[in-house]
Design a protein that fits this description.
With about 200 residues, the protein is an alpha/beta fold. The chain has six helices and nine strands; from the N terminus they run ααβαβαββαβαββββ. Strand 1, helix 3 and strand 2 form a beta-alpha-beta unit.
């Protein structure tokens, strides 16, 4: 890792610093909001379910320096990308769990923070495990790229007794150079939903 990368201490590491691939990655601006909603502690135990390239996992690990982050991902290409990013950013407290949720969650230590970026159609089952294992007053954050996922997420959190449920829609527009001009390039809108475990 270069000196310029070592100095970044705030959330929102630029996208191009991560090892990419064909696996979707949570963009820096959205990632920053997700991390703020997680309300990480220095010693948090975090599950990142559907970790993709590991961008959230890496940033969570750097923020919760005395904690542990478990990046859960079943796609082999994504697992390798997470491993590459773990090494690149020296995220030594990041543990990669190659497996499919919810089964892959069962043997993990109980978390106080959970982020769900992908559920493979198993959102209710994953949230059921999260509900049973999440520490009192623990936080769960979900990213929703479709209206159906947003609706399902809100319903599950309500039905499972989470409180402090919030939702925020994020629409990011970036400037893109086109010769001597700049065009506006919109990223796909994302809804970020969060809830707090009962005490």
């Amino acid at each position: 890792m270069s000196n310029s990368e070592e100095k970044i201490m705030t959330p929102g590491i630029p996208d191009d610093m991560f090892v990419r691939g064909n696996v979707p990655m949570t963009k820096a601006e959205v990632r920053t909001i997700v991390l703020s909603k997680l309300r990480l502690k220095n010693n948090s135990v975090v599950w990142d379910v559907g970790a993709g390239t590991g961008s959230i996992s890496v940033e969570a690990a750097l923020s919760a320096a005395k904690g542990t982050v478990y990046a859960v991902e079943y796609r082999p290409e994504a697992v390798e990308l997470i491993r590459s990013n773990q090494v690149k950013f020296a995220a030594n407290n990041l543990s990669i769990v190659a497996g499919r949720a919810p089964e892959a969650l069962l043997a993990l230590p109980s978390p106080d923070r959970v982020v769900i970026g992908g559920s493979g159609g198993e959102l209710a089952a994953i949230l059921e495990v999260v509900k049973n294992r999440l520490c009192p007053a623990g936080v769960v954050v979900l990213t929703c790229a479709t209206v159906e996922t947003l609706y399902h997420s809100l319903n599950c959190l309500r039905e499972m007794g989470f409180h402090g449920i919030e939702g925020v829609g994020v629409t990011i527009t970036r400037l893109k150079s086109q010769g001597r001009y700049h065009m506006l390039e919109g990223l796909n809108p994302v809804f970020i939903v969060s809830g707090v475990q009962s005490t």
